[in-house]
Amino acid sequence: MLRKGIAQLLELEPDLQLIAEIGDARDALKVILQHEPDLILLDLNMPGQDGLHTLNLLRNAGVYARIIIFTVSDDQSDIHRAIHNGADGYLLKDIDPLELLASIKQCVKGEQVISPEIAQVVHHALTQRLPENMHPALNELTEREREVLRLVASGCSNKAIGQQLLIAEGTVKVHVKRVLAKLHLRSRVEAAIFALHHNKEF
């Protein structure tokens, strides 16, 4: 019922397009790989396999869409595992529907979205995830990839990056994927934090 309600809520938003709402993790993987959505709202408790395993499979398959974990769990181990597996946000299901919509829109634009109650835990998980010896990999980035990384760090969406650099949105997605792969990062949030940590180096 909750999934259906969220789907109906999203369908009422003119600037959002709902691609699918799926209850089984295995079916979700197929649809995501086929349609390449910009954002995925992922439950931790799903039939077929749990959401954390699904998240890990998606990132390992090269899916760099924004992924928000949407769950009732505020358990620290779940939060840490979600962030370590590449989640871009973590929202609890008691969130107000209008706040959920706002969070989805913020996440699409490149912002990190988390429920206030767990903000400190998420911040700790993010800082723990960042490798300390990553900066030599910056040498592998092309100048265009560095430009894209700077704009990701500033919170720009793929569309906004494309407009600033005068390139197609699809081309931006390719650059973002390459940046994440070269820096061994799993989400745009990690890329943004990495860029802020090493901003003097590029």
From TrEMBL:
The keyword Transcription applies. Residues 1-108 form the Response regulatory domain. GO terms for molecular function: DNA binding. CDD domains: LuxR_C_like. Keywords: DNA-binding, Phosphoprotein, Transcription, Transcription regulation. Residues 134-199 form the HTH luxR-type domain. SUPFAM superfamilies: C-terminal effector domain of the bipartite response regulators (SSF46894), CheY-like (SSF52172). The keyword RNA-binding does not apply. One of its GO terms (biological process) is phosphorelay signal transduction system. This is Nitrate/nitrite response regulator protein. SMART domains: HTH_LUXR, REC. It comes from Reinekea forsetii. Pfam families: GerE, Response_reg. The modification 4-aspartylphosphate is found at D43. It comes from the Bacteria.
